[in-house]
Amino acid sequence: MSQAKSTAAAQPRKRFPGKTGGRGRRSGPWAVVVLCLLIAMFSLLPLGYVGVMTADAGWDTIEKLVFRPRVGELLFNTVALVVVTVPICVVLGIGGAWLVERTRLRAHKVWAVLLAAPLAIPAFVNSYAWVSAIPSLGGLFGGVLISVLSYFPLVYIPVAAVLSRMDPALEQSGSALGLGPWRVFFRVVLPQLRLAAAGGALLVSLHLLAEYGAFAMIAFDTFTTAIYDQFRSTFNGAAANMLASVLVLLCLLLLLGESKARGNARYARVGAGAQANPSRLALGGFQAPAQLGLAALSVLALGVPLFHVGRWLVAGGAEIWTRDALATSLLQTLGYGLAGALVTTILAFPLAFLVIRHPGPVSKLLEGANYISSSMPGIVVALALVTITIHYVPGVYQTAVVLVAAYALLFMPRALVNLRAGLAQAPRELDEAAQALGKPPLVAFFKVTLRLTAPAAAGGAALVFLGIVNELTATLLLAPNGTRTLATEFWTLSSEIDYTGAAPYALLMILLSAPMTYLLFAQSKKVAGQ
Amino acid sequence: MASISIFTLAACSGGTAPTASDGAAGSATDAITVYNAQHDTLTQAWADAFTKETGIKVTLRQGDDSELSNQIVQEGAKSPADVFLTENSPAMTQVENAGLFADTSAKIQEQVPAEYRPSTNKWTGIAARSTVFAYDKTKLTEAQLPKSIMDLADPAWKGRWAASPSGADFQAIVSAMLELKGEAATLSWLESMKENSKAYKGNSTAMKAVNAGEVEGAVIYHYYWFGDQAKTGENSKNVALEYFKSQDPGAFVSISGGGVLASSKHQDNAQKFLEFITGKAGQTVLQTGTSFEYPVASDVAPNAKLTPLSELQAPKIDPAKLNSAKVTELMTQAGLL
């Protein structure tokens, strides 16, 4: 680690002297900056909308609507949810990844997949299953339970990937210098996981701020559920926009926190390391407790939802499969998922590139712009787009273009976090070496960096796809007339407590998400060099 | 340059994504678009039967009462909607007040009795539902039930009852209370509700909470109970219904509305759709289907399991007077929203 750091420090951010002259290289970053600026401006549309609406309301209204006990309750619930859930996800994610990748855990290959698998179960399907199991589930406890079980893989997957790739030489050096296994873990291994864990924790936090369906089903109020309630009653009312403004502030705090946790260390490594033998620690007497713990986690996160979906499917019999909407919604979900994932990943690329290759306040700012939109509930983003398109671009109102744009706004960070990690591990020296050998910068970029980043891009796209499969409110508000997705159909039926009718949709969402989760899992290993 | 190509790409992939649905949207130019806040399954049944009879395709856009009414107001004359259907009437009044509805056809006015449509004839009632107190029959005897919905403000009810304050259903009930009891009494009732009650999302969920023993009773509409009983009964087996009657605000019968948008380019077909819904065939869907809402037109009797509307002693309220904006404001003030 310290060695890596010193390399980073010794690596000045300067242009390589090359044969191709300055023009291409100079304009390269500038073009990227302009592109990123455009993307960031697009990302800030919802924030601008909330800001204008807030300003329109005037201070008196703001004071009346923000400084009231209800907002205090929501603030407490939302903050408590994040403060309790995120550390648990980090501990489970890192702990699980370490057991699977770095110990002689029996059946570790099976556990490796099982720990990633809960990502294929949408949070509101999880909620639906848990409410079937425990009808009284609710409150902060319920919210944390559902969130942890749904979202810990967001930490586990990237951390496991880093662990499986990490150069054992660092740990061996640590041991050689007299550190015990625990100290090696805390002083050598853990710091290497910072980027992955902080990225995962940020994704978990943003999910918590924006989640609606899972919490609505168990009667736990957060800012997002309250904003949704306000919008349902008054559409773009002042109160809803005030709540959204407070939510934006919370998001900014999170970003600041993540940026601090991430640090500025360098993580790329040049040259082949001794990858063949990642050292695995003997578990000894801890083997049984570890197996039991992982089994318990898997039963809670996978067993409960699968069992209850199965139970409703059996209770519904053949009849529940006869709805016409089933095939339509499956195809539409697939179509939007693929289109949205593609567009979002392409839009995220320049940003990730700028952040990793040209770090600085500007790139940080441009990157941050995208997190703000994704921390806002789908309904806020959707309403901003409804209002803007009706008044300024009526031609695209209620077309697929707007919906895909909303998906890009909501899910850009998922692509970004993955691409960022991928680019961080694609050593710029290789790119520069290619340039030094006479390749024009763009060619060098496509041949070297893009190829090295492709797995990360696929992982990011898979995460975006998962998000779109689960998305509810933006889809309802923006989709072309007659659109039905698995999520909207599931929600309609389950909120009528037609649990049997909703079950096939739950199953299809899981089946559609499973290959994406596997892709994400497999690619995360590849991007980490295995 | 790069940004242009990205936008082209977005347009392309966005445009190709939903081709699978084109069949559903219908290629015929006479197809109508319905903004539907009614239960999806009910309107789908209406739409399917209507298409079968007339060949006119119907595309549904699903949402909640206020969500869709506000959206229509925002869209104004550019609204792609031909018909708007709701579960309650306040959202209809909002669109009516914005001047966006066309008059209902003579046939509709003929089919629907005057008490189930506004005197302006800018929209029509299509169904009705009654407010009830759904209670846990293993915990409460009839003698222990509240006599009036206003009694639930009593501190004795603290922590014992539930509702779904964020939904249009409940807000319609509050609008009736506002009309009958005035602003001060309603606000004070809402403030005690904030203290006394538990909030759930959706009437079904509130009823499920009663069934699970989390609360002793919930203010909901009647048909959630009948619907669950007709299915597995799993969420209502411990639950019984109490009708407040005696013209109490808690005996409020809410009218579901339907209207044709003045901006609709398919006026005739849109009117035909509402004529179908309020006609014999459409109302019979309410009688024989699984929605358990009350038919209000064409002399169709309700499902035999339901207490007839005439016996509910509902308070008489002009649906055009129900004010959703004021209700939301009061509920926000009370901290319920």
Topology summary:
The complex is a heterodimer of chains A (530) and B (337).
Chain A: H1 2-10, H2 22-43, H3 45-57, H4 59-66, H5 69-102, H6 108-116, H7 123-133, H8 139-151, H9 153-165, H10 168-176, H11 181-192, H12 194-210, H13 213-217, H14 223-234, H15 238-262, H16 287-316, H17 325-357, H18 361-375, H19 378-392, H20 400-425, H21 428-436, H22 441-470, H23 473-478, H24 486-495, H25 499-527
Chain B: H1 2-16, H2 22-25, E1 32-36, H3 40-54, E2 58-62, H4 65-75, E3 83-85, H5 90-97, H6 106-111, E4 124-136, E5 161-163, H7 168-181, H8 183-196, E6 197-199, H9 203-211, E7 217-221, H10 223-230, E8 239-242, E9 253-260, H11 267-278, H12 280-288, H13 324-333
Parallel strand pairs in B: 1-2, 1-3, 5-6, 5-7
Antiparallel strand pairs in B: 3-9, 4-7, 4-8, 4-9
Describe this structure in words.
The complex is a heterodimer of chains A (530) and B (337). Chain A is mainly α. Chain A is built from 25 helices and no strands. Mean pLDDT of chain A is 85; it is low at 1-27. By secondary structure, chain B is α/β, with parallel strands linked by helices. Helix content of chain B is 40%, strand content 15%. Chain B has 13 helices and 9 strands. Chain B has helices at 2-16, 22-25, 40-54, 65-75, 90-97, 106-111, 168-181, 183-196, 203-211, 223-230, 267-278, 280-288, 324-333, and strands spanning 32-36, 58-62, 83-85, 124-136, 161-163, 197-199, 217-221, 239-242, 253-260. In chain B, strands 1, 2, 3, 4, 5, 6, 7, 8 and 9 form a 9-stranded mixed sheet that branches. In chain B, helix 3 (40-54) links the parallel strand 1 and strand 2 (58-62). The interface between A and B is large, with 70 and 69 residues.
